[in-house]
Design brief:
The chain is mainly beta. 9% of the residues lie in helices and 45% in strands. The strands form 3 sheets. Strands 3-11-10-6-7 form a 5-stranded mixed beta sheet, with no helix packed on it. The chain has a 3-stranded antiparallel beta sheet with strand order 1-9-4, with no helix packed on it.
Length: 152
């Protein structure tokens, strides 16, 4: 009985997401990309760091429900990025996982090629998004950064 109640509470808390990840018509969304020659496995000679991570309107910017949001990220070395959103109610959702980004270049996520948009949904309030960088898919975390914005 306690186990089913705990499972129900977890299900209810996970059902209130702050983002909808929506593919464009007639496209598919890859959740965990497989490294290809354009996404090499990286052998780190120095620690990779996130030098910039912000919502495209800036830190603590304001968005309306139904608007889309994207993020700019820049790292010192190439690596694999995971974005996790934390809503005003404390719920968490993974927006992107294992996305390869090139070092030294500002990248906007989601990318146009992904066919994905991040559309804002309730609850209103302060939203936190963290970016976690690793040098290999599923590898140890090299750096983490956070940005915040409001949904009104």
């Amino acid at each position: 009985m306690k186990l089913s109640l705990a499972a129900l509470l977890v299900g209810v808390s996970l059902s209130a997401c702050a983002f909808y990840v929506t593919p464009e018509p007639s496209t598919s969304v890859r959740v965990r990309p497989i490294p290809t020659p354009s996404q090499p496995k990286i052998i780190a000679t120095e620690a990779a760091e996130i030098s910039e991570f912000v919502a495209t309107r800036g830190e603590r910017s304001v968005y309306d429900l139904g608007e889309t949001v994207s993020f700019q990220v820049r790292t010192t070395a190439g690596g694999y990025l995971t974005l996790t959103a934390y809503g005003a109610g404390g719920e968490a959702s993974v927006l992107a996982e294992g996305v390869y980004i090139q070092g030294g270049v500002t990248t906007t996520l989601p990318t146009a090629e992904s066919g994905v948009t991040y559309t804002l949904a309730p609850p209103r309030g302060l939203q936190r998004v963290t970016a976690t960088l690793s040098t290999n898919p599923g590898g140890s975390v090299q750096d983490t950064a956070e940005t915040t914005f409001y949904i009104q």
